[in-house]
Amino acid sequence: MKRQLTLLLTLVLFGSLFPTASVYGGQLPQLIEPLLIAHPQQSGAYVLEKGEESLLARAWLADHAEQSIDVQYFIWSNDNIGTLATERLLRAAERGVLVRVLVDDLMIDAPDSFLLALAAHPNIDIRIYNPQHKVGTSKKKRLLNIFTNFRGINQRMHDKTFVVDGQVAITGGRNMADEYFDYDQKYNFRDRDILLLGPVAAEIETSFERFWKADLAKPVEKLLAKKGQPTGERINDIYRELHQYAENQDHLAPEVSQALSDLPQQFSLLIENLIWDRVRFISDDPGKNSGDKGLGGGGRTTTKLAEALQQAKQRVTIQSPYLVLPDGGLQLFSSLIKQGVQIRISTNSLLSTDNLQAFSGYSKQRKKLLKTGVEIYEFKPQPAVQHNLIERYQKLKKRAPIFAIHAKTLVIDGQKTYIGTFNLDPRSANLNTEVGVIIDNPELANLVEKQIERDMLPENSWNSASENPNRFASLWKRIKLSGWKLLPLKKLL
Q1: For tag attachment on the chain, is the N or C end more exposed, with fewer CB atoms within 10 Å?
Q2: Average pLDDT of the chain?
Q3: Are 43 and 94 found together in one domain?
Q4: What is the pLDDT of residues 57-114, one digit of tens each?
Q5: Res. 265 pLDDT band, cuts 50 70 90
Q6: What's the pLDDT score for residue 19?
Q7: Same structural domain for residues 258 and 304?
Q8: Is residue 228 scored above 80 in pLDDT?
Q9: Dist. CA 454–CA 159, nearest whole Å
Q10: Does one domain contain both 123 and 263?
Q11: Residues 379-421: tens digit of each pLDDT
Q12: 290 and 397, same domain (yes or no)
């Protein structure tokens, strides 16, 4: 059965690379349906550890979508990767696929004319979540929002989902920008996504629909109504510029172009290594909570993850870019350790972090955490593991960018795994909406835990209990950290 499926996938992929008559007709169902029949009521899961691998998976799925592509992101940048991803969606829309894009307002940087031109396509809809900062918001209005709706401007949609035809999905830590796929020249993230096939994809689609229809999600045309619709000529120019950008080989490294040619072999291996089991998707409601507790209030993801932690019997292994325990977190960890549970956390050091404010919160808690018995490993800015995780490392090593943790993962007792968007901080617990999957499968848990344990090795991380990694940072960075520590920011971190 496995060989037949591998052969089928290879034929499908070669068909996409060397098209004859109809490249897209019937391909995705032909690939997925035999797999679902062979694994009734189960979902297939494959962990995407490498940025390039995760990028190629998205590209292939976008090219083979037949009915719909629904994407939901906190960040969608106007950089190289963001532009290439946008062109891929436009290409899908031009062959008849219905594309919906939901992006948080805070970090969006696309020009208004660009957004309006894309939304003008009959097969593309774009909505902006909680638009209080940028899209359609003047500087005066933004300033007013800060004073009149402080919780509202701090409440963001941190979800990251990519769903194709309601049957295949990707979720995890990666946003749509260069640094999440190892393409930034100065700073890249060590991140983790998970590719999912089967029933769980429908659950993710249901969550997307809930956000899409929420009052907080506003059509970009309404937000930018005062700007006026671009002319047909301008719209066509923008589409043409996007396609020309994607066709320019200067915008795609030669090794990635080669990887695209090697996709049949890569996806054959992926299919062979799918882990099949029941996969549970967890997500927050739009708005996170009622808001009547100010900057607190929790949420469904917070509750589900706390419940999972409380069931730990032997060990808990966590990877989170930010480590600022919300209220009750230290007590929970202390209680588990007293019961004999080992707790290990992989997080960023002062040298690798991209968020000095969040690190200041961790810095204030570090002694208490270590005293409780939590083992903390702080990631080095140029860890040895980047040689294995960055496909293009040989080209980057002469001026290697900082490599920082962005993965959000939890493994309990070598059995249960969470991969998603939840950071171990008050913002994820109370303000930002979060998503992720929980899989009760020892094989997958073992694979993921080994990856995190490798990140904890001395060549990749400092052990906070025996070392003081802050001493390796510049004097100026340590001074800035001291300044941030003076501010009462915990609830916003």
Answers
A1: N
A2: 89
A3: yes
A4: 898 889 889 999 999 999 999 898 999 999 999 999 999 999 999 999 998 888 899 9
A5: low
A6: 34
A7: no
A8: yes
A9: 27
A10: yes
A11: 999 999 998 887 665 666 566 789 999 999 999 999 999 999 9
A12: yes
Task: Show which of 208, 242, 272 is a domain's final residue.
Answer: 272
Two structure tokens written together for 51: 């940025």
DSSP 8-state code for residue 397: G
> What percent of the chain is modeled with pLDDT above 90?
77
Give the mean model confidence (pLDDT) for residues 120-132.
Answer: 97
- Name the residue among 141, 201, 146, 193 with its Cα closest to residue 169: 201
Are 212 and 92 members of one domain? yes
By the 10 Å C-beta count (0-12 exposed, 13-18 middle, 19+ buried), 232 is classed as: exposed
Please check whether residues 250 and 111 belong to one and the same domain: yes
356/263 same-domain check: no
Residue 91 belongs to domain with CATH number: 3.30.870.10
Closest CA to 158 of 434, 464, 429, 452: 434
Q: How many domains is the chain built from?
A: 2
Residue 367 CB coordination number (10 Å) = 10
Q: What secondary structure does DSSP assign to 314-368, as a single string?
A: SEEEEE-S-B-PPTTHHHHHHHHHHTT-EEEEEEE-TTT-S-HHHHHHHHHHHHH
pTM: 0.92
What secondary structure, in 3-state letters, does 63-82 show? Answer: HHCCCEEEEEECCECCCHHH
Cβ neighbours around 457 below 10 Å, total: 12
Model confidence pLDDT, tens digit, residues 178-195 = 999 988 888 999 999 999
Asked whether 490 and 324 are in contact (CB, 8 A), the reply is yes
- What the block records as the tokens of 17 is 């690379």
Nearest in space to 117 (alpha carbons), one of 37, 234, 216, 21: 234
For the chain, how big is the Rg over CA atoms in Å?
A: 22
pLDDT in tens, 9-18: 333 333 333 2
SS3 440: strand
Residue 370 structural domain: 280-492
Instruction: Decide which of 272, 295, 328 is a domain's last residue.
Output: 272
Which residues, at least 6 apart from 340, have a Cβ–Cβ distance to it below 8 Å? 314
| H-helix segments, 155-231 | 199-212, 220-223
Identify the bridge partners of residue 163 per DSSP, sorted by sequence position: 70, 169
Q: Is 433 helix (H, G, I), strand (E, B) or coil?
A: strand
